[in-house]
From TrEMBL:
Record PANTHER family: SUCCINATE DEHYDROGENASE [UBIQUINONE] IRON-SULFUR SUBUNIT, MITOCHONDRIAL, SUCCINATE DEHYDROGENASE IRON-SULFUR PROTEIN
Native source species: Sabulicella glaciei
Glycoprotein as UniProt keyword: no
Domain 4Fe-4S ferredoxin-type, chain residue ranges per copy: 136-164
Native organism taxonomy: Bacteria, Pseudomonadati, Pseudomonadota, Alphaproteobacteria, Acetobacterales
SUPFAM superfamilies assigned: 2Fe-2S ferredoxin-like, alpha-helical ferredoxin
UniProt protein name: Succinate dehydrogenase iron-sulfur subunit
Complexes and interactors: Part of an enzyme complex containing four subunits: a flavoprotein, an iron-sulfur, cytochrome b-556, and a hydrophobic anchor protein.
Cofactor mode of binding and number, as noted: Binds 1 [2Fe-2S] cluster.
Domain of life where this protein originates: Bacteria
NCBIfam families reported in the protein's UniProt record: dhsB
Gene3D superfamilies: 3.10.20.30, Alpha-helical ferredoxin (1.10.1060.10)
InterPro entries attached to this UniProt entry: 2Fe-2S_ferredoxin-like_sf (IPR036010), 2Fe-2S_ferredoxin-type (IPR001041), 2Fe2S_fd_BS (IPR006058), 4Fe4S_Fe-S-bd (IPR017896), Beta-grasp_dom_sf (IPR012675), Helical_ferredxn (IPR009051), SDH/FRD_Iron-Sulfur (IPR050573), Succ_DH/fum_Rdtase_Fe-S (IPR004489)
Catalysed reactions listed for this entry: a quinone + succinate = fumarate + a quinol
Pfam name, any one: Fer4_17
């Protein structure tokens, strides 16, 4: 049986393992086999195994991916896998990263829904009716399926250059709320995503859009924020 050569970052170095190549094998299958049969203390993260949670994301041969949905045959043409933790995040151990800075930036971008029709943030008594065909609803729908896996954040050059940069996922979330007609925090949200750490620092290289496993377009969301801030300034 053919063998895969697997190189995994552990601390400051790389450890090498051999794993049998199997039909329809995913990268997560390979990591799990190594942990169960060769390296019991190997640290990595996963949950659903079917592309619903995004927690298994790591760097595979230089590209951030969900490992549960990545088949080895598509990324290891020479029979070699090189696995590293997601870039731009603190490493807890081995392939497991600390997602705290990622979600802290969601908070900085005011990514929490703020109902405008209820006092003190209380839940409105009645559900708001938003026509699915309305332009703002369609803009919100375009980015609302983000599950916070961090692949776009790890793929963002601007985050690697400027650790304070909010990142594409946080701003994609802000854009969905800017277009939510039920939300009352639009002005504060646009203020939060402006500035050197916000949307104006985006270089539009579109690495986030290229790598998003959900086929979302954070680059367009960031461009939408830039337009909204520009027209908002003119209107003041």
């Amino acid at each position: 049986m053919a063998q895969l050569k697997v190189r995994i970052q552990r601390g400051d170095g790389m450890a090498e393992y051999g794993v049998a190549a199997r039909e329809n094998q995913t990268v997560l299958d390979v990591v799990t086999e190594i942990q169960r049969e060769q390296q019991p203390d190997l640290a990595y993260r996963f949950a659903c195994r079917v592309g619903m949670c995004g927690s298994c994301a790591m760097e595979v041969n230089g590209v951030a991916r969900w490992t549960c949905r990545t088949h080895v045959r598509k990324v290891a043409e020479d029979g070699t896998l090189t696995l590293r933790p997601l870039a731009n995040l603190p490493v807890i151990r081995d392939l497991a990263t600390d997602m705290t800075p990622f979600f802290d930036k969601w908070a900085r971008a005011r990514g929490q829904f703020q109902p405008k029709d209820a006092p003190n943030g209380a839940v409105p008594a009645e559900f708001a009716v938003v026509p699915p065909s309305s332009p703002k609803r369609q803009e919100a729908d375009a980015g609302i399926e983000c599950i916070g896996c961090g692949v776009c954040y790890a793929s963002c050059d601007v985050v690697s250059w400027n650790p304070d940069y909010l990142g594409p996922a946080a701003m994609n979330r802000a854009w969905t709320l800017v277009n939510d007609v039920r939300d009352g925090g639009r002005r504060e949200r646009l203020d939060a995503v402006a500035g050197d750490a916000g949307c104006h620092s985006c270089h539009s290289t579109q690495g986030c859009t290229e790598r998003c496993p959900k086929n979302l377009d954070p680059s367009s969301a960031i461009a939408g924020l830039k337009r909204s801030i520009f027209w908002g300034v003119l209107a003041r």
